[in-house]
C-alpha cells in the first residue's frame, strides 16, 4: 500500500484448490512486482484464512519457497471486506 491505497491488482484464471489458487496468486503478484518489493516490507491481505499461517510452517514446498527472501506479512481480511480484489 502507498498512502493507504493498493498499488496494483493482478488477475488470472486458476484451476486448483482455493488455498493453492490464493497462494499461486500471491506468488504471481510478488514475482510480477519483485523490483518494487525486494528490500521493502509489504503486507499481503487475503480472505483465505489458512494463508495467514504460511510463514509459521516449518517445511515449505514449491510455490511457498518462491516467497523466501521477501519481507512481508500476511493479514486475513474477511471476504465481505475484500471486495476490490474479488471484483477483478
From TrEMBL:
Key word rRNA processing present: no
Reverse transcriptase RNase H-like domain: residues covered: 5-66
SUPFAM superfamilies cross-referenced by the UniProt entry: DNA/RNA polymerases
Nucleotidyltransferase listed as a keyword: yes
Molecular-function GO terms, alphabetical: endonuclease activity; hydrolase activity; RNA-directed DNA polymerase activity
Keywords: Endonuclease, Hydrolase, Nuclease, Nucleotidyltransferase, RNA-directed DNA polymerase, Transferase
CDD domains the record matches: RNase_HI_RT_Ty3
Pfam families on file: RT_RNaseH
Name of this chain's protein: Enzymatic polyprotein
Species in which this protein is naturally found: Trifolium medium
Amino acid at each position: 500500500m502507498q498512502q493507504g491505497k493498493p498499488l496494483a491488482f493482478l488477475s488470472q484464471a486458476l484451476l486448483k484448490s482455493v488455498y493453492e489458487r490464493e497462494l499461486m496468486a500471491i506468488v504471481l503478484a510478488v514475482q510480477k512486482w519483485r523490483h518494487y518489493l525486494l528490500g521493502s516490507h509489504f503486507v499481503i491481505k487475503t480472505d483465505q484464512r489458512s494463508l495467514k499461517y504460511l510463514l509459521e510452517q516449518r517445511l515449505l514446498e514449491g510455490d511457498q519457497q518462491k516467497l523466501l527472501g521477501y519481507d512481508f506479512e500476511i493479514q486475513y481480511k474477511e471476504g465481505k471486506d475484500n471486495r476490490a480484489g474479488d471484483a477483478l
